[in-house]
Amino acid sequence: MRKWVSAVLIVLGTLCCVYAVYPILEVHQGINMALDKWEDVKEDKTPEEEKAERADGIIGILQLGNNEKKIPIHVGTTDKELSQGIGLDELTVLPGAIGNSVLYGHRENVLWELKDIEVGDHITIQGVESTLVFEVKEIQIVDPYDPYIYEKSQEPTITLVTCYPFIYMGPTPQRFVVRAQLKSI
Fold this sequence. Notes:
By secondary structure, the protein is an alpha+beta fold. The chain contains three helices and eight strands.
């Protein structure tokens, strides 16, 4: 009897592990597919307007500081977009435009490296037409509906938002917010 109980517990434990790891693997696969699509569009010699249309919602690639990891930026913040990278809130401006571009991403598998960012670090966004470099000006931990996230700006600004704390089970009580201003084009 003990052997059966042990075997059942081992099988249940294995299934729980697979259930927990599968979403992470699925997001990595989505990000890799989006990056492949982006590279195809960037290498194509068609006019810039056609490239933007063919990018299938991808408006750029984000890199944090000196980190080599490339994260696709999509328009929208649905589960589909967030499972393939970062999502631009459609109610905000495009990165590089005057105003505040609010970008959301999951902490576990997309913006994990954000926990190590510091004021003064750079965030790079490679778009279809140009590469933008932003300098981190503020880092705050706020409530999920804090108006700070959507605060207006008179300069090109990006606001990266992810759940906080970084290691936490269940719905997170706060948001980790990084605000950066355009440094150069």
